[in-house]
Amino acid sequence: MEIPENVKKRLSLPFEENFYAGHTACQGCGAALGLRYVLKAYGKKAIFTIPACCSTIIAGPWPYSAFNAPLFHTAFETTGAVISGIEAALKAKGYKVKGEDGIMVIGWAGDGGTADIGLQALSGFLERGHDGLYIMYDNEAYMNTGIQRSSSTPYGAWTTNTPGGKKHFLERRHKKKVIDIVIAHKIPYAATASVAFPEDFMKKLKKAQKIPGPSFIQLFAPCPTGWRSPTDKSIEIARLAVQTAYFPLFEYENGKYKINMPSTKKEPKPIEEFLKLQGRFKYMSKDDIEVLQKWVLHEWEELKKKAEVFG
Amino acid sequence: MNTLFGEGKSKAKKIAFKSVEEYPEAPISLGATLSNFTGDWRTFMPVVDDAKCVKCYICWKFCPEPAIFIREDGYVGIDYDYCKGCGICANECPTKAITMVKEEK
Amino acid sequence: MEYKPIKKVISGNYAAAYAARDARVEVVAAYPITPQTSIIEKISEFLANGEVENLQYVPVESEHSAMAACIGASAAGARAFTATSAQGLALMHEMLHWASGARLPVVMVNVNRAMAPPWSVWDDQTDSLAQRDTGWMQFYAENNQEVYDGVIMAFKVAETVNLPAMIVESAFILSHTYDIVEMIPQELVDEFLPPRKPLYTLTDFDNPIAVGALGTPADYYEFRYKIEKSMEEAREVIHKVGKEFGERFGRDYSQMIELYRTEDADFVFMGLGSLMGTVKQAVDVLRSEGYKVGAAKVRWFRPFPKEELYELAKNVEGIAVLDRNFSFGQEGILFNEAKGVLYNTDAHPLIKNYIVGLGGRDFTVSDVKKIAENMKGIIEAKKLDREVEWYHLKR
Lengths: 311, 105, 395
Description:
The structure holds three protein chains of three kinds.
Chain A: H1 5-10, H2 30-42, E1 46-50, H3 54-58, E2 64-65, E3 71-73, H4 79-92, E4 104-110, H5 111-116, H6 119-127, E5 133-138, H7 178-183, E6 189-194, H8 198-210, E7 215-220, H9 224-227, H10 234-243, E8 250-253, E9 256-259, H11 272-275, H12 286-309
Helix pairs in contact in A: 2-8, 4-6
Chain B: H1 7-11, E1 31-32, E2 44-48, H2 58-62, E3 68-70, E4 76-78, H3 88-92, E5 98-102
Chain C: E1 6-10, H1 12-22, E2 27-29, H2 37-48, E3 56-58, H3 63-75, E4 80-85, H4 86-101, E5 107-112, H5 126-129, E6 137-140, H6 144-161, E7 165-170, E8 179-183, H7 186-192, E9 210-211, H8 220-249, E10 257-260, E11 267-271, H9 275-288, E12 293-298, E13 300-302, H10 306-314, E14 318-323, H11 333-343, E15 350-355, H12 365-381, E16 388-390
Parallel strand pairs in C: 2-3, 2-4, 4-5, 5-7, 6-7, 11-12, 11-14, 14-15, 15-16
Antiparallel strand pairs in C: 1-8, 6-13, 10-12
Helix pairs in contact in C: 1-2, 1-6, 3-4, 6-8, 9-12
């Protein structure tokens, strides 16, 4: 179905839709939006692998699929390994993988499936140098199983297994820096992205296609259900995550760091602005917020230094 | 007409099998989720005021379904068969051209 | 082209590697574990020497990933192969179900090795038999030749019924022991085993499919039945493929249970894999001493050769089931299966279970002779002395 050319030109994203409505994501789901963007970026010529996660359900129950692209469902911890196998098979059969007209082999996994149970297979995929793209959509907990904490859950968050009570605090550990673990593999391309900045995400997806070898993108994807946030605030929250430097946007390309913040010059907004829209943070005390704020700014300074020294 | 999926929507149908013989050998998909009308999940429905719309397409960009399509005249339309009523479009609209209205069913 | 075998003195592991090469596998993903390693080393040599074309070797970081990568490769249309043993096989367990559920004809060699603790690297069948319910076909090789033949046949059977297959060989007794193996010239293997025609493909971008999505209670059941139906069909396919193999290359594998001197036998020894080589030798000795005994080597454990077992059981007074494996809280696994098969039939010979050779304990011709003596007594008394005997136990 076509729309006027002059309208098409004004769109900041490709017009083509390869993500079908009728999918079963919750209202305001960041992961669903992320999938829509990835499917826009590569058209149909991408093979997806999805482990156990919300997207297993989002993609539709048998006999339906929300993807206008091939999709292989796999076990929780295997994304890195399965995409390695798919890439190997395509190469053995003489297909072009990655590059302008090559097939994109994509792993799409949640934070639990990446930072926790799938970390080993991810490391193997990165270390062996396969031509593929691993996207970790980060909604900061095991949402599909009912909001349990993962190693990507931030300090102070309520989850169903960090419920908070008289004796036990909320989540006590800071968010695991999966992207740093990925970069330690010295892969050619790694980046963070956010569903609130789809044009930036799209650019990164295109880069991941162009640059040979393994690529990794950590995509910030709000979850209204698990974050106890209003469904209409998903983009606003994701935007604030960037503006508070809680989830800074940056790229690591061939050994060089580059921050892609819309506002690198400005001071980050106070973390409260990000926290206050989400019910999961409502039990935090002033001291707790202070702890998180300090951590955010420390990490932000560290990233800025890296960009300065290795920019 | 929903310009997102064209004829895909009208062609999509529910699939159910009565006999084991009809099933494929492997659990592979046989159709699109477009036959699943998620509009009935909705409590609040977005209503677009064309007079306020500046055709920036931010609502189109951020719809997670996607259920917002672009009409031939360049304004946006909402496919209520799919819209779950999350309200992101209304929240992100820079001119407040979209309002969420409680739906009577 | 006339069949002239290429004879080589090689280990069971090398036989597996040569067979994978001759089957023109396209993706090998594997992780090292004793005593499987020389399979992967040999395949790496083939690659290093340019002896294989279009083969991608993925040196994964675990057995779980080995099977996952094979599954990915197979789903993308490739002929995929791996090899493992014991702990590695156990680690793969989850993905074994995935391979059969997604209907992918991955072929794997498992070197039977005892499960720890205590640590052991020696022969024991519990590792592979514990994978009984994963939807994999299982073939037990008696010798190195059967390892080679088994791998090539397994691909043909697996790709016909779209289920994965496991070729099982014994730790060290086969894996590291050298013996003459007749290998088949490449062109003839190609005639026997044409390129794989996948059930579905992930590379049809105009008609994309999702594989393995959520199956609700309304549909899951039917997909399980489909797997079982293919397992049932596999019996016929095994028979045909085994027969064709025999016609082409002189070694007939049409029978899922190989019978050795069982005509007129009073009782038979039944078991899996390399220990049946010892048993056959013992049968010859026992026959020369006047015993009317035979051997029944179960080649395929899955699908289980029900009909053939029934035919055998009808005509003997006793069966001594030799299990180099054990299911705790019950009995030997083959014994358990055999009893189950015969219960609803009119064939009820005296059937006794001997637990032998666990963790690589030596099992020799003289052991078989002792068991024969015991069995003879049982048949004369027309009653079992006990059902399960831990044969080697130090008392």
